[in-house]
Amino acid sequence: MRRTNLFAVAAVLSVGLIAAGCAKPPQQELDGVKASMAAAEAESAKWAPEAWANVQAASNAVDAEVQAQAGKFALLRSYNKTKELVAAETKAIEDAKTASVAGKEKAKSDATAAVQAAKDSLKAASDALTAIDGCKKKPKEFKKDFEAMKAKYDGLNAQAASLDSAMTSEDYNGAKTAADALKGQVDAMTADVAAAKAKIKC
Q1: Does pTM top 0.85 for this prediction?
Q2: Which of 38, 59, 100, 150 could form a disulfide with 48 if both were Cys (CB 3.0 to 4.6 A apart)?
């Protein structure tokens, strides 16, 4: 009877060891999280870089754990931690997706405001040119200077179309950068027109 019990215990231990030895990576979960990561990369990396960095760190942790288990003896492998890390990566991906939506909306809002500000500056510059052109008392050299100012304005005004194109293609960061630069140039030109107007005492 005692021998029978020993055999039973040995059998249970053997089954346990065999089961442990059969531990395999949770491939379905690993494939799923990789697919989710690939699907979220374009938007998240662009509009939520910090959140995307968290995803990459979580992905690296999963890969490191899988490799660590693969380097162990078969009977000692366990993928419980791997599953926990996969769950953490999945959450990081969802967080990044949420952050990317908010990031994109903010970028669009900021770009829209910058583009409008640039267009307002162009309108102010146009009004300034119209005002100085209407001055009754003009020096002989004024015509040449006015033509130069008008040509500069036309060149700057032509850039407004590229801002609209960037907004249409959802290049909000590029649109804002270009709009800010354009506004700076237009404002400087408007200041020059105002100085010229004051000089001719108009």
Answers
A1: no
A2: 100
